[in-house]
Amino acid sequence: MSIGTKLILLLTLTVGAVMFFASFLSLRQREAALESALRDELRAHAVTLRIALEENYDDGRVDEARELIDRLRENSRIYVVLLFDEKGNPLEFSGSKIETVFLSPPELEIVLQRAEPVEFIREVNGSRFLSLILPLRFSEERTGALEMIKPLARIEDDIARRRVNWISITLLLLAVIFLVVVVVLSRSLSKPFQALLEGARALGRGDLAYRVNVPKTRDELALLAEEFNRMADNLEEQRRAAETEAENRLALEQKLRHSERLASVGRLAAGIAHEFGAPLNVIDARAEQLLEKPDAPPEKRERNLTIIRRQTKRISRTVRQLLNLSRPYNFRFAPVVINESLVETLEEIGRNLKKSNIEAEFSANGNYTVSADRYFLRQVWLNIFQNASQAMPDGGKLSIECSGTEREDGNFAVVRVSDTGKGIEAEHFDKIFDPFYTTKDIGEGTGLGLAVAHRIIEEHGGAIEAANNAEGGATFSVYLPLANEGKK
Predict the structure, then answer these.
(1) Is the distance from CB of 224 to CB of 212 less than 8 angstroms?
(2) Dihedral angle, C-alpha 427, 433, 434, 436, nearest 10 °
(3) pTM score > 0.70 for this model?
(4) How would DSSP label each residue in 56-84?
């Protein structure tokens, strides 16, 4: 139910209740006044008649008294007049016949004994009558009573008509009040509220150009409409400012991305030039020697050709790494026990680790099986182990630890590879997984190993992280989902 409907009902019912109560009290007062007037009229007639009858009987004019009583029949407002002697027997009455109930009223005895008037209402044959019995003195020695009866039918009919009129007028006034309240509230309240509601819906839809009509009446609703339009103006201005700011931010982000792309392309170009430049220079120099000295000894020619082949292999290896980094991988997922994969890879590079004076140590607190491509997983371990070995040029300790852990997205096996080298400088952390980004000397690395490892692990649904150790060196942590939760 809307507020306007509630107000209409509340005002109509309130005003109607007040009007109903007030008019009802007024009606009751008028009814009481009519009854009081009827009683006063009856008393006046009865007292006047008693005086006239007492004079007639005192002067011995009994016939005149009887004639006076008979003439009262002509008064339609008086039903009957009765005279009683001191014993309560009826002496005279107006009219040719009368109901027997009027001939012996119980109240008559009270009047005769106490000589006091009695007024009462009786109901006869479904009709109500107002009776007044007065003590009457026929002479010094003789007393009696006078009863005058008036019907209440006329006044009751009058009251009934008044009540019908009152109900009709009340219903009419309620209808008029209802219509007036509806019209006033509709023009002064419902329509302005509906306009504000439509405006709020329009703003909710994003139509900040919508404005409500301000009523000409300078009331609170008109002020509210003005404030609503002012709020819409502010919102529209703020949206324009936000759009302008968003456009500026987007343009700035595009410039930054363009700069980052240029920087990435520059690093890639520099890395390729660096990786290809050195071996190409060596190849060019050795080829030049072969051309300049065609009669050189076979041993020297063989040595130059061997160096040329070694450098071409170096270029080919770099090209393969670039291709592996750029093209889609065709993984063949199968259950792989990480412990076995790590041990196999360590055995493969064990001789090189001993030559570099590096001690390898492996530990695991359980067997963990993941769904992975065995070949690509081995490539990840080789790249990480090689990166750790290069971080310890004077020898050191390579620690590999395998355990299980729980992350937000499931249960994982985690492999932590730690070295005792110099660690990673803070400015390099954000770039260590970028292609061709390396801090090693020329010829010691292409900067592609960690980038390839990072991509392989991510496509296996895992993650790779790097951190420095408190006692020195760095640790690479590789997370792979366990077989029952990873890729199938």
Answers:
(1) no
(2) 100
(3) no
(4) HHHTT-HHHHHHHHHHGGG-TT--EEEEE
Query: Whole-angstrom Cα distance, residue 277 to residue 315?
Result: 9
Rounded Cα distance, 171 and 136, in Å: 51
Max intra-chain CA distance, the chain: 194
Cα separation, 99 vs 70, whole angstroms: 17
Q: Is 417 helix (H, G, I), strand (E, B) or coil?
A: strand
How do residues 152-200 score in pLDDT, each as one tens digit? 777 777 777 877 887 888 888 888 887 877 777 766 666 776 777 777 7
Q: For 136-165, b where at least 16 C-beta lie within 10 A, e where not — what string?
A: bebeeeebbbbbbbbbbeebeeebeeeeee
Contact at 8 Å (CB) between 395 and 445? no
Q: Coil, helix or strand for 297?
A: coil
**Residue pLDDT, tens place only, 187-235:** 666 677 677 777 778 777 777 777 777 766 667 667 777 777 788 788 7
Would you state the pLDDT for residue 441?
47
Give the confidence band of 414 by pLDDT, cuts at 50, 70, 90: very high
- Contact indicator for 461, 481 with CB cutoff of 8 Å: yes
Determine contact, residues 454/397, Cβ cutoff 8 Å.
no
Closest CA to 286 of 308, 256, 267: 308
The H or E element containing residue 468 is strand 463-468
Measured from the Cβ of residue 263, the count of other Cβ atoms closer than 10 Å reads: 11
Contact 391, 473 (CB under 8 A): yes
**Alpha carbon separation from 125 to 100, 122, 373 (Å, rounded):** 12, 10, 116
Lowest mean pLDDT among 63-72, 78-87, 373-382, 440-449: 440-449
CA distance 119 to 241: 93
State the CB neighbour count (10 A cutoff) for residue 80. 21
Report the alpha-carbon distance of residue 487 to residue 331 in Å, rounded.
11
Q: What angle do CA 430, 420, 478 make, to 5 degrees?
A: 50
Q: What angle do CA 274, 278, 281 make, to 5 degrees?
A: 135
Beta strands 369-372 and 334-337 are antiparallel
Short-list 280, 319, 324, 299, CA closest to 452: 324
CA distance 46 to 80: 11
- Segment 452-471 shows an average pLDDT of 88
Please tell me whether residue 416 adopts helix, strand or coil conformation: strand
| Helix-helix angle 298-326:220-292, to 10 degrees | 160
